[in-house]
Amino acid sequence: GIQVEQSPPDLILQEGANSTLRCNFSDSVNNLQWFHQNPWGQLINLFYIPSGTKQNGRLSATTVATERYSLLYISSSQTTDSGVYFCAVEAGANSKLTFGKGITLSVRP
Amino acid sequence: DGGITQSPKYLFRKEGQNVTLSCEQNLNHDAMYWYRQDPGQGLRLIYYSQIVNDFQKGDIAEGYSVSREKKESFPLTVTSAQKNPTAFYLCASSSRGRLYSNQPQHFGDGTRLSIL
């Protein structure tokens, strides 16, 4: 099956700093989503981005499908950005999302 | 408000006991999914259903069962055959796009299951 690798596994930032989170995948995809899991376990949709670039406030994401990677950018980080960020992909039409292991972000005041 | 409701938030299981986790959605989504998350890990797919009265096994279906009798409901039963059931369980749903491609999955708040 498709493999999803996220890097770095852990990231510590000072409040106000910028960061880039990376997701590599091993095959063509027709769906890619970025999620933020907060400390209570809630999984929040950030982006649905099988290709191209999208922005939502301080967050933006870019997927280069031909090179099999996606990047999530966080600018002017806040303590509320802390948590785990997951990339998940769907290959083929079987509706199965395969998740990476996540990137744990800690933003310090 | 539209959304996905999982209940209960916390559940305890005794040895040899079956337990059922509830998942209800009022988003009119065709597809529903169950995932398991272990500490420090990503989500793994247990079962999914793309239409009423039909469902498929995911990557870790052993020891679990599901039903899909209604579009809005997709309960998951953790059977006594599941020897390591302690985990965080998340339910999701999505609509179906053109050419059977799927739209983004949206998640409930999860159920934490522990063994007594």
Structural overview:
The complex is a heterodimer of chains A (109) and B (116). Helices cover 0% and strands 58% of the residues of chain A. In chain A, strands 2, 4, 5, 9, 10 and 11 form a six-stranded mixed β-sheet that branches. A five-stranded antiparallel β-sheet of chain A has the order 1-3-8-7-6, with no helix packed on it. By secondary structure, chain A is mostly beta strands. In chain A, strand 4 and strand 5 form a beta hairpin. In chain B, a hairpin with a 5-residue loop joins strand 4 and strand 5. The interface between A and B is medium-sized, with 24 and 29 residues.
Key attributes of the depicted protein:
heterodimer, A: 109 residues, mainly beta, 5-stranded antiparallel sheet, B: 116 residues, 7-stranded mixed sheet, 4-stranded antiparallel sheet, 11 strands, 0% helix, 48% strand
